[in-house]
Amino acid sequence: MVLLLYVAYEWGYDKQFKNYDRTYVVYNNSVTPTQTFSWAWTPTVMANEVRTKIPGVAYASHSSYPSPQLISYNKNSFKEPMVFADPEFLKILDFKFIKGNPDQVLKGVNSVVLTESMARKLFGNEDPINKTIKVENRDPLKEGAVDLLKVEGVIEDVPKNNTIQFTYLASWKLFEQNSPWARNINWGNNSCLTLVQLNEKASFDDVNHQMEGIYQRNMKGATNTALLHPFAKWHLYDKFENGESVGGKIDQVRIFFTLAFCILLIACVNFMNLSTARSEKRAREVGVRKAIGSSRKSLISQFIIESVLLSFIAMTVAFVLIEISLPYFNALLNIELVISYTDWIFWATLIGLTILTGCIAGSYPAFYLSSFEPVRVLKGFSVNGGSTLSIRRVLVVFQFVFAVCLIICTFVIYQQLNYIKNKPAGFNKDGLIEIPIQGNLRNKNKLHLLEEQLLKSGAASHVSYFSNSLNEGGSNTFDVDWTGKNPKDAVLFNYRCAGPDFTETVGAKMLAGQEFSKIHRDTTKVMINEAAAKVMGLKQPIGATFRWWSKPVVVLGVMKDFIMESPYQSVGPMIIADEEINFKYVLVRLNPGQSISASIAKIDEIARTINPDFPVGRHFVSENFELKFQNEQLLGTLSNWFGGFAIFISCLGLLGLALFMAEQRKKEIGIRKVLGASTINILTLLNKDFVKLVAIANLIAFPIAFIIIQNWLSAYQFRVSLSFLPFAIAIALSLFIAILTVSMQSVKVAKSDPIDALKYE
């Protein structure tokens, strides 16, 4: 049920809205001769073009992606994610309004809509409507920006399983006023999210067909195409190859869904094993019932009902355990799994699953037990279990096939995760922190004062600047030309801006040339990474000239490739410019000669003194880098937990079979002991059959696990080579578990007094 709650949570992403099935995200497919790049980034003019020119569209909205902004009221200040949006945003995503008129919000420049929790944090029990709040603590008279906003509405909190996470919405007109470039009609600047809602779902094909040529109709020579991607699939199907959705998080959800039912199935197999092992004790009951007129049909019904009742008792215990364990799993997965007591679907699923489990688990025992002949049973016929022993062995093998597959897969997942995490990043993440440039730090003099004081304090050994967080994606362009470039080639270049002393600060390596100078600042000089030098075929890159956005630039230095975006893909070509206006982060290398806590305290103190109206907002680069592996860590952790459960349940099945066989062979063991067999001889005899079963399970599991792992690894550009080690560990672990489990039961029989088994003969 925990796994199914997680699957339901993921499956419910972006489905909280009334017309989610008619809502789409506009994707931009950038087509090149070798590859198609797909982004949910579109021009600011896209929404208006779609709304006015394409029939069948009910609403089209443009909005920014969530970004943290400081919001304050009186002395209450919080840095929270905000989104700039137009009025149609709230018509497409129809969040429930707690206060305010949904038809009137976000129309004015100074309009703002808060979530319920944000309103409570800012205003407490006050009515927030028509109250004025400040964004980014900017003075509109001095900075020419309209950042005094009037609260016009309060909406319910954004569910955690919603892709667009924010705590307040500001007007798109404010965004245009603060960023004049956003008002320009520019089809080459893909900078916002466009959502589209159709009048009817049936018109999707027609609208999507018209979307394909929207770039060509508005921009001469454009090779881009636009497509509509279902909003409800945005989270689960976010992986694109050559312009088509090919999966994503849905693959992980399918794994957990399968895992849940496999665990339940091996538990059912256990019940079948234990029930048939007890068949001798139920045989006389069946004989008597049949003798006094019970039909086989009524006996089958009785055994099925018994199984279902046991299943309901188990469900009750499981339900209590779910409530106890949910806080742990929520903290582990960083999500909000809750049991909705008012949701009939939850109760229907729970009860239906319980009945189904009871029926599956009780089916074989019911048909087997009801097949006994009353005459033979009542004359003293003993059910020796030979007829069902082979079936029980098959069931035990099935259980261990699943357990061995899980052991191998879990081990390879951790191998892959460690391989990617330990792959050189190209820079030193440890002891490196980022401080966002905000408030007073936007002033050049204040920014340089911060650098000066950080170095002077001894807390920092190096300080530089960057245009993005080192762990985030950023700007890219195809508009790079160089001598010898094929006019038909379209190569995507990343571009960033960095300050002097950048490579020393981040711990990267210069392969040739030099980095930017503090004394001689020159925006025509750029650094490139080795991937860019390779793409442009620059054998002597230092001093080479190429055109970037039709502007000639000169290569000052070549840096070794370093990972900023996905560690699972090769590093793309990158251009780094020295443009101070684009700096957004201060990079600080902590002094290794001082304690980390003392250095951090000093950095915070200096930053607060220079920029008192804003939280410092600093964070370690290494911590953010770890977030890149969240999916794989989640997969590994859950595989560990539920793989452990599966192995434990398999051991219970093995224990049940061992108990049955030991009881069946009690007299044989007594005779062997009288004739001089030792306890070790007896244990070896009893374990031999089970070791064979586990060995067979391993042989069956190996090719299955190999196929599963090969398919999983194929999604990664950098992947660990598959060795025999996971398979050897699976063999050793499964045999150890089997021998330990069987021996725990067998040793009781082996040490028992043979007189007890033979005194009735």
Describe this structure as you would to a colleague:
This protein is an alpha+beta fold and 761 residues long. It has three domains: 16-245, no CATH class; 251-420 and 630-758, no CATH class; 432-623, no CATH class. It contains 24 helices and 26 strands. The strands form five sheets. Strands 17, 18, 19, 20, 21, 22, 23 and 24 form an eight-stranded mixed sheet that branches. Strands 4-5-10-7-9-8 form a six-stranded mixed barrel. α9 runs parallel beside α12, α9 packs antiparallel against α14 and α22 (679-713) runs antiparallel to α23 (725-751).
Give a short summary of the structure.
With 761 residues, the protein is α+β, with helices and mostly antiparallel strands. The chain has 24 helices and 26 strands. It has three domains: 16-245, no CATH class; 251-420 and 630-758, no CATH class; 432-623, no CATH class.
